[in-house]
Amino acid sequence: MKLLIDFFPIILFFISYHQASFLVENTFIGGLLDPTKSELITATIVASFIQVGYHWLRTRKFEKMHLFSLALITVLGGLTIMFGNPDFVKWKPTVLNWLFAAVFFISFFIGEKTLVERAMGNQIELPQHIWNRLNIAWVVFFLVSGAANLYVAFFYALDMTEKLRMDMWVDFKLFGLMGLTLIFIILQAIYLTRHISVKEEALEETVEAEKHQHESENR
Question: The pTM is what?
Answer without folding.
Answer: 0.68
